[in-house]
Design brief:
This protein is an alpha/beta fold. The protein has a single domain, classed as Rossmann fold (3-Layer(aba) Sandwich), CATH 3.40.50.2300. Helices cover 44% and strands 15% of the residues. The chain contains 5 helices and 4 strands; from the N terminus they run H-E-H-E-H-E-H-E-H. The protein has a 4-stranded parallel β-sheet with strand order 1-2-3-4. The longest helix has 12 residues. It is globular. The chain starts with 13 loop residues before the first helix and ends with a helix.
């Protein structure tokens, strides 16, 4: 993680999430899909347009058809349900940080319905 562990930042909406990303430049950006102002995909799109190497993990309550496809086309590397345990989220962050992908099977199945 760039040589040291850092405490993350939190933001209440998409605009604040983007501003926090610019200020803190995390190794893995964890976004909520359903944020006010800009949703998670819009924030990810902005970030990846400027920093295509950025690793992003998305959290969501619901995945609509096409959501996962759009997310992976953008370059998002992980997709988990908000119901996921902290342990699972930590594992996914580590996997995404290492260059892997992580997709919650429940979210994947939901997106296919």
């Amino acid at each position: 993680m760039r040589g040291r562990h850092r405490r993350g930042a939190e933001a209440a909406d998409g605009e604040a999430s983007y501003a926090a990303f610019v200020e803190h430049r995390p190794d893995v950006l964890v976004l909520d899909f359903g944020m006010p102002m800009l949703d998670g995909l819009e924030v990810a799109s902005r970030v990846l347009a400027e920093h295509p190497e950025q690793r992003i993990l998305m959290l969501t309550r619901h995945a609509w058809p096409g959501t996962l496809r759009r997310a992976f086309k953008l370059g998002i590397r992980g997709f988990l349900g908000k119901h996921s345990s902290l342990e699972l989220i930590a594992e996914a962050i580590a996997q995404v940080h290492a260059g892997g992908r992580r997709i919650d099977p429940a979210v994947s199945a939901q997106a296919l319905i």
